């Protein structure tokens, strides 16, 4: 059975006096089993004809997938190919899309580039998007049709472009359209070529720029991510951590799932979630988060059953670096103390206290340390120390280039 909308469950358990009884049995009301049924929705002929009508007048088609995990990757790819959609996604979409690096693709497009990339028809599903540039691109492109597929009647539209909400499971929606389709449809092959060319140029430019970068968080992550074994899990902290991973998604194996507590606009609980995830899987869980996020949630390590498949990567730039990257906070007189929350802490003694192996990186001579950390069969921490101001310069220069 499927209960929608899916989300956290809060259990309230009343504890009443007397706290310490004499082992007398308590009497509870007989429990009831309430079965939730979600009947499968069926697309009728009228809807399919409407879909074909929109397709035929929309040669430039874009399939956008947000946060999610339980997707049929082969089905999504088949749908995109069959109906001529360019397929884009974020790192937390956990799909095998053609286009992933939206922020570099879509930053500062001129009018000619924007016109070439603007879609006529957008089909989307999944939760939040990391890429602000992609959200702004969809807002500005104003597609004639933007259909959002989700099993939830609540409209959440950060792109400000949705024209139709389809209340059903996305995989059922794609499967039924594929089954009803007969023959090929006409689409703009040049539209796909424009996106592919953008992808190829971005990949080449990024590789060239990374090779020239000075020591910093971005360069270390570009070195670390390709070494994360297939079928591992990455659980990312919020703020800069997930933005770095999104920009470097090219360097993450397709068989590595990426999770992040998005939608809360905060850094709380990232480590606790990763610990819980590691306890429930045999896969290695890499928790990649910032130093402030780690300090906020270090009590997650106060746990007698920390599993050996837990590996923690801390980006220690002595504060909340996200506030250096966005406009506004640096102009405040309280920036260092209350926005960046500058701090001198490290995780070495905490690692000793909780019996985790500890590794640290402070410069470019790190390949051996990365290898040791990745291959260590026991729970461990890798702490990467870097300068916040240099990281800011590196990050902003990448976008300029």
Structural class: alpha/beta
The number of distinct β-strands equals 11
Strand content: 5-15%
What's the main sheet like?
6 strands, parallel
The count of helical stretches stands at: 16
**Unreliable sequence segments:** none
| Helical coverage, percent range | 25-40%
Shape: globular
What is the succession of H and E elements?
HEHEHHEHEEHHHEHEHEHEHHHEHEH
Distance between the termini: 50 Å
Look at the structure and give the mean pLDDT. Answer: 89
Alpha-carbon Rg, integer: 24 Å
Biggest sheet, strands in spatial order? 7-6-8-9-11-10
Characterization of the model:
With 401 residues, this protein is of the alpha/beta class. It has 16 helices and eleven strands. It has helices spanning 45-56, 73-83, 102-106, 111-117, 132-141, 170-180, 189-212, 217-224, 240-247, 270-279, 291-296, 322-325, 335-339, 348-353, 367-375, 388-400; strands spanning 61-65, 85-89, 121-125, 145-150, 164-167, 233-236, 257-260, 285-290, 310-316, 357-361, 380-385. The strands form two sheets. A six-stranded parallel beta sheet has the order 7-6-8-9-11-10, sandwiched between helices. Strands 2-1-3-4-5 form a five-stranded parallel beta sheet, sandwiched between helices. Strand 1 (61-65), helix 2 and strand 2 (85-89) form a beta-alpha-beta unit. The radius of gyration is 24 Å and the shape is globular. The chain starts with 44 loop residues before the first helix and ends with a helix. The model has no long low-confidence stretch (mean pLDDT 89).
